[in-house]
Amino acid sequence: MKRLRPRLTYSGVASTLALVLALGTGTVYAANEWTGANIQNATLTGADIKNGSVAGIDLKNGNVASIDIKDGSLTGVDVADGGLTGADVADGGLAGADVADGGLTGTDVADGGLTGDDIANGSLKGDLEIEDNSITTFDLAENSVDSDEVLDFGLSNEDIGVLFALVNADGTLAASSGGVTSLRIVAGQYEVDFGRNVSQCAPLATQGNSGAGTPIGGIMGVADRGGNAEAVFVSVIDDDGAFVDRSFVLIVVC
Question: pTM for this one?
Answer without folding.
Answer: 0.46
